[in-house]
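dumping this here so i dont lose it
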């Protein structure tokens, strides 16, 4: 259950953060209106709460691992929402980032409190 919880919380956090940043981008760069920015601010705030629900107690570890999820999620968002076409190197970099995130969160000897056992 803990592994599923970690993965689900990272996915939801990524949707909130990337979606929030995209909404603000739309407001500022695409002149879509102030309410896009307002919705983006709300989504970015929600991201912080989802990240804080991770079972690991170490802020630095959680946010470092989330960085890998953010990289892959941002590229995926670009593909789905903006029609972005990743290069081979985008895929390679994203895979490396996700492997790094998995190592940080699931390395043997890590407890959910963030202490090495």
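and the seq i came up w/
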């Amino acid at each position: 259950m803990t592994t599923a919880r970690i993965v689900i919380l990272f996915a939801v956090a990524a949707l909130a953060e990337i979606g929030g940043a995209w909404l603000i981008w739309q407001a500022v760069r695409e002149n879509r209106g102030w309410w896009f920015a307002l919705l983006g601010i709300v989504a970015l705030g929600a991201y912080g709460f989802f990240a804080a629900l991770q079972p690991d107690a170490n802020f630095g570890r959680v946010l470092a691992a989330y960085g890998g999820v953010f990289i892959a999620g941002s590229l995926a968002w670009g593909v789905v929402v903006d029609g972005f076409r990743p290069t081979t190197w985008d895929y390679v970099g994203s895979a490396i980032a996700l492997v790094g995130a998995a190592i940080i969160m699931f390395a043997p000897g890590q407890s959910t409190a963030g202490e090495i056992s």
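The two ends are 20 Å apart (CA to CA).
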